[in-house]
């Protein structure tokens, strides 16, 4: 059975304050070598560069597979330092099942091949939504708001407007890279839009 990590951060590629995933995992009692599959939401540097340690060593020695949206592979391989992972890439499309309780979900608009991953725990569902939301303080209340980092702002807007009510109605936990600590919570209706209630 695979042990899956969804996205792996920026590594040390952006700022000296980053690149501490291994230490954080150790603090949580998770050995990085136990990770056998990484499921990437998309191929932007702040989600993929953590495959390498700041010193250039591979961060996950037990890694056997990197799941990535089929349309995101070209962008992933545009990073020359990541070419070494080519043989591990496994393209995925929305609706593909990665494991018994883990399903790939199309979340188009932010980037080519942008994927979410829906985890069913038999008690709750958790949607790992990548960059569906960038500015929580604004985009929950007004999901129509977009910004220039979305590849296709119109599609990103439509995706958000579709997914937020679905998530609220189903009481699905939402986990995202830009939601602020702890990065997971529930979406609830509030006024004409929504609010994000972080997990306690």
UniProtKB/TrEMBL annotation:
The lineage of its organism: Bacteria, Pseudomonadati, Pseudomonadota, Alphaproteobacteria, Hyphomicrobiales. The keyword Hydrolase applies. Belongs to the metallo-beta-lactamase superfamily. Keywords: Hydrolase, Metal-binding, Zinc. Residues 2-178 form the Metallo-beta-lactamase domain. It comes from the Bacteria. SMART domains: Lactamase_B. This is MBL fold metallo-hydrolase. Pfam families: Lactamase_B. GO terms for molecular function: hydrolase activity; metal ion binding.
